[in-house]
Amino acid sequence: MTLSRKRLLGGAMLAAVAGIALLGPLHGVDPLRQNLSDALLPPGGAYPLGTDHLGRDMLARLAAGARLSFGLALLAALLAAVAGTLLGLLAALRGGWAERMLLGLADAVQALPALLLVVLVTAFAPGAFLPLYLGITLALWVEFFRISRNAAAGVLARPQVEAARLLGFGTGHILRRHLWPEVAPLVATLFAFAAGTAVTTVAALAFVGVGARPPVPEWGSMMTELLPYYAEAPLALLLPALLIFLTVLGLHLLAGRERA
Amino acid sequence: MRVLGGRAVQAVLVALLVGTACFLMVRLLPGDMAYRIAASRYGYDLVDSAAAEAVRQELGLDRPWLVQLGAWFADLSRFDLGTSLASGEEVADALRIQLGHTLLLSVAALFFSLLLGPPLGVLAGLRSGGWLDGVLLALSAALRAVPAFVLGIGLMLWLAVEWEWLPVAGVGGWREVILPALTLALGLAAASCRVTRDAVAAVAASPFFGFARMKGLGDTAAFRRHGLRNAAIPVVAYLGLQLVVLIEGVVVVESLFAWPGIGHALVHAVLGRDIPMVQGTALVMGLLFVVLNALTDLACWLLDPRRRTA
Amino acid sequence: MGLPLLARLSLAQPATDTFRVVTSQEINGLDPARSGYVFTRLQVVETLLGADDGGLPVPQLARAWTLSEDRLTWRFTLRQAARFHDGTPVTAEAVVACLERARSQAGLLGNLPLASIAAESGAVLIRTSRPFTPLLAFLAHYSMGILAPAAFEGQAVRTIIGSGPYKLSRLLAPQRLEAERAEHWDGQAPTIARLSYLAAGRGETRAAMAEGGQAELVAQLAPETVERLRRNPRVAVDIRAIPRTRLIKLNCNLPLFRDIRARRALSLALDRQGMAAALLRSPASTATQLFPPAMAEWHVPGLAPLRRDLAEARRLLAELGWQPGAEGILRRDGQPFAFTLRTFSDRPELPGLATAMQAQLRDVGIDMKVAIVNSGEIPAGHRDGTLEAALMARNFSLVPDPLGTLLQDYGPEGGDWGAMGWSSAALHEVLDKLGATDDPAERAALRARASTILHEELPVIPVSWFDLATAMSRRVAALTVDPLELSFRVAGARWVG
C-alpha cells in the first residue's frame, strides 16, 4: 500500500470516529436518559446501536463519549508528546549536567510506579476526568522523552551533523534539517498508541474502582460498567473498544512513513 | 562496573524518594484515614466510628507526621518495613508472597510474548508493507484498544470454560499462571512485535544488508548473519522498559484472575490508606526498576561490541 | 472435529477429592475480628454458639447454657471432648481469654452491657449489667471465634488453631487457603476430606468457575450471571432471601430532608421494581418495607407497600415550596434541590443502582450527584456531619438477632449505618423493652410496632431486599445454604456416587 493510500485509510478511520461524535447531536437523544424496561436491547428500532444495562441509548452515549474521551485522550497524549519531546531534544542538544538531570528525573518518575501516581492524583479530585487524564500524562511523557532523546543523540553523533556544526550552522538549522525529520515519525507513532493507552488506562482504573463517576459517558468507564453483561450484550461492550481501535489505527496510519 | 556503582547510588536515592513521596501523598489525600483503615480491616459491615477511633488510638495517627515518617525511615534502616495497618501482617512477609507471584506472572508473560512478538515482527519487517505487516499492525492496534479485562474475560471463557483446557482462575499450581500470563503477553507481544518490525525494517533497508543479499545470501541467512544482532539492541532496550510497565499492568489481570500479586495489593493499600504497605510496595517496585535498568544496560553492553570498548 | 481430542489434553484442574469454595472475600489478616468469617464459615474455627436458619441459638463449643434467676448471669458448659487442632483441650480459660480479647477490641462485644466474663469449674460465666437477651446471638458472631492459646503471640494472632472439624493446612493470604479433616475433632468425621478456599473479587470470574465446573460452591453470584448458570446442567443455583436490605441513608439535619414529606417524595420517585428486574434480576427483591419477608418476625405483611408515584411525589414537593426552575431542577428560595449521594463499590451492584436512581430522581426535578467512595467515608461523614445521603447495604443478621443491629442504627444519636439526624422516643422505648423481655407475644407486638414506626417515618429509604445466590456443583449432595452466612456447611455434605 502506498503512503498516500495509507493516509487516506487512516483519515477515513478518524473521520468515522468524528462522524460518530457529530451524529450525537443529530440523533438528538439524551445520553443520560434511562429506560430500565429497555435494558440491553440489540441494535434496531428506536436505538440504532442498542442500549446499555440501564436502557440508555448506546449511540448517544458513544457520541458523547467520543467528544469526551477523544478530546481528553488526545489532550493527554499531546501534552505528554510535547513535553517529552522538547525535554528529550533539550537533553540531547545540551548534554552535560542538563541531560543528567533530566535522565535522573525520568528515572525517578518511572521508579515511582505510574499506577500509584495516577491513583494518587485522582484521589485528590475523585470522579473528575480531567485530572485523571492529566495524571496519565505524568506517566506517559517519559516514554516520549526517552525515545526522542535516544534518537536525537544518534543523529547528533553522525558525521554530517558534526560537519554542519563546524560549518557554523546554528541549533535551529540542525533541529530543522537533521533532527526533526528523524524524530518526528517516531514521536508520531508513539503518539497514536499513547492516545489509545490513555483511554484503556482509564478503563483499567475504573475496573479496580478508581476514578469512575457515573453517569458521565466516557469510553473507558463505559466498558467497565458493561463488563458484567459480556454474555448478554457483547456488542455493547465491544463498541467503545472498536472506536478506540479506529482512533489508534487511524492516527497511526495518518502518521505513517514509507519505511521503518 | 562504574555503571553498576551508579545504579547502587540510584537505588538508595529511589528508596528515600519513594518512601517520602508515598508518605506525603497518602497523608495529603482528603478523607479521614482512620475510617479508611478501619474499613479495610473490618469490612463495610463493621466499619463504624468506634472502630475508627480505636484504629486512631492504636496506630497513633494523631502524632505529628514528621515523627511518623522518621519512625518509618528508622525502621527501614534496620530493614524493617513495618506492619500493614490493614491486616496486621509484616509488610515484608506480605511483599515476599505478592512480589514472588507478580514476578512469576511477569516472567511467564514475557516468555509467551517473546514466543509471539519478535518472530512475527521479524517476518513483518523483512517484508515491510506486505500483507502480514498490515494484518499485524491492525492486530497490535486492536490489542491496544481492548482493555486487559475484556481480553482476559474472552480468553477465560474460550480456553477455560468452553474448551476446559485451563483453570479459570486461582493460584497454587503451575496451570493457574498460564491464562493471566497469556492475557498480559498478548498486549506485550503487540508492542514488542512493532518494535522488532521497525528495527528489522531499518536493518533490511540498510546498505550492508543489501550488500549481503547481493553476495547471494537468502533473506533468512542474510538476516541471521548480519541483521539479528543489530535488530536485537533496540528490542532488548525496549523490553527492559516494558517489563516495568508490565509489572504495573498486572493489576487488572491480578484482580480478574484472583492472583495474589503486588499490583492488586498496591491499589488496595492506596484505597485503604495503608501507608506502610504503600511505601513498602512502591519501594520494592522502585528498586526492581533500578535492577531491571541495570540488567538492560548489561544486556545491551553484551550485545553491542562497540559499547564494550567505550 | 479436533475438539474432543484436544479436550483430552486438558490442563484444567482435574476433579479431585477437594471441595473448592469460591467467594469474593479476601483473607485480610488472621485476627478473628478481621477475616474471622473465612475461618468460621469453613468450620476451622468455632464460636461458643451457632444459630439455626431462623437465627435461634444452637450449641457449638458450648453444649448447653442456663440463665440465672435474676436474668443477669449466663453459664455455658463446654463440649467435654473438644480439642484444639494442636491437641490441647478446649478449656473454659481459653474461651474466656478469647472473649476478653474480643471485648477489649473495637467491635461488637465492646458495645454490650457486659459486667464480667469468667471461667468457673470448667464452665464459662458471662454476667451482664442488665437483662440482655440478644447476648446469645452476639456469641455466634465470627469475631467471637475461639482460638487455642498457642495461636497467640502476645495479643497478636500468629496462626490459626481452631477446634472445628477442619484444620488449616496451607494459607496464601489474601487469596487462598486449604484445609483438611482435623484428627482431634470430637464429633462425627466429615465425609469430605479436604477443602480449598479462593477469594475471587470479580463476579465474572466466580461465574466462570462455576460454569467450568471448577468449584463445588460459589458464593455471592453476581445477579447478571445467575440466569446463565441456571441453564448449566453441572450446577444447582440456590437463591434465597437473606436479612439484608439496600437502603438510602439520609441526613435529616439538612433542610432538604428534615420534613417527612420530602423523604416520602424521594421514596415515591424511586422505580424499585424496574431496578430489581433490570439490575438485580430478581423482581421479588423489590422492597415494600424495610425488613424482608425472610425476617418473618420483623416483616409486617399489613404495612402499605412502598410504591412509585411520580404525581404524588411532585405534589408533596410542591407542598413544601419546591418549584421547577432552570433545566427542570426544583428550586426553593433560590436554592436548587441538589445533594450528593455517597456509595461504594465493594458491593458491585451499588454504583449501578445509584446511577439508576439518579435518573429517576431527575424525573421529579431532584439533582442527585453520585460519589463512589471508600465504605469508611459513610460513617466518617456521619460523624463529621458532611454526609448528605448514602446508598448502602445493611446486614440485619450481623448478629443473628436483628435487635442488636437496630439498637446500633436507630438509637438516640442515630447510627453510622442507620438514621442520621432523626430520632424517635417511641422507637427507643420499644427497642429497650424488647431487650428486656422474653414473653413471645409481647415481643411480637413490640417488633411490629418498631417496624411500623420505621416504615412511617422513613429515616432511611429501603430500595431493595437481598438475594443470596449460590452455585453448588451437582457432584456434591446434602449441601445446604446457610441464610445467615455463618457457615458453608461443607462438613455435612458428601460426594455423589
From TrEMBL, chain A:
GO terms for cellular component: plasma membrane. The keyword Ligase does not apply. One of its GO terms (biological process) is protein transport. Residues 66-255 form the ABC transmembrane type-1 domain. SUPFAM superfamilies: MetI-like. InterPro entries: BP-dependent_transpt_permease, MetI-like, MetI-like_sf. It is found in: Cell membrane. The chain crosses the membrane at residues 68-90, 102-124, 130-148, 183-209, 229-255. Pfam families: BPD_transp_1. PROSITE patterns: ABC_TM1. It is a multi-pass membrane protein. Its main location: membrane. One of its GO terms (molecular function) is dipeptide transmembrane transporter activity. Keywords: Cell membrane, Membrane, Peptide transport, Protein transport, Transmembrane, Transmembrane helix, Transport. Belongs to the binding-protein-dependent transport system permease family. This is ABC transporter permease. It comes from Teichococcus wenyumeiae.
